[in-house]
Amino acid sequence: MAKPILVVGSHFPKAIEERIDRDYNARRNPNRVPFSQHELLSAADGADALFITPADRLDSGFFQKVSPTVKVIATYSVGFEHIDLEAATRRKIPIAYTPAISEATADIAMLLLLGAARRAYEAQELVRTGAWKPLGLDELLGWQLGGKVLGIFGMRRMGQAVACRARGFGMKIHYCNNTELPAEIAAMPSTTRIQRICFARASS
Q: Which of 99, 51, 42, 98 is nearest to 71 (CA)?
């Protein structure tokens, strides 16, 4: 049985490339720049599926012209703002996307919190530009995360993953959510207790 034809719009990590080679007859983008829309349409001629990135803009004009053989389009991204979903629906082409990776996103959130708190970017710029000199004791002072309040809007998987890391730094967590967290998740020592706060919506 012939393998499905998959148009591959970019270069992906090794594990993904190996699976593509195993399961599909791949039509790869040979360049390090995204396909133009004309190139993507040409590559899609007779293909079963497309594997794209946010650099590929699929507007209504694209869906008017894309080959009728295309059964599904997958994007290597959490967002799908680069795809005209209404136009895809009219052509009855399902769109697959990458679900949010809560743990990795929470790590990055803490990286940014720590970087801002300790003024890491400013210090790195001084080192990179050769401007680093013995400074006064009041220069580039940051602040510690312990005891600070972190507000989280939305406490589902990603919010809870951020809260878990922030509590490890002794932060107090305030969150806004449609429902309260289960007691086993919210129960923490008093110094880092998760508290739910609600915001009244302004009436129009």
A: 51
- Cα–Cα distances in angstroms (integers) from residue 114 to residues 105, 127, 138, 144, 165, in the given order: 14, 19, 19, 8, 11
* Sequence-ordered list of residues with C-beta below 8 angstroms from that of 74, at least 6 positions apart, any chain: 49, 50, 51, 52, 95, 96, 97
* Domain boundary, last residue among 44, 70, 96: 96
Verdict on whether the full-model pTM lies above 0.85: no
In a domain, 204, yes or no: no
Tally: H helices and E strands in the chain: 8, 8
- Among 96, 118, 153, the domain boundary falls at 96
- Note the pLDDT tens digit of each residue in 43-52: 999 999 999 9
**How many domains would you assign to the chain?**
2
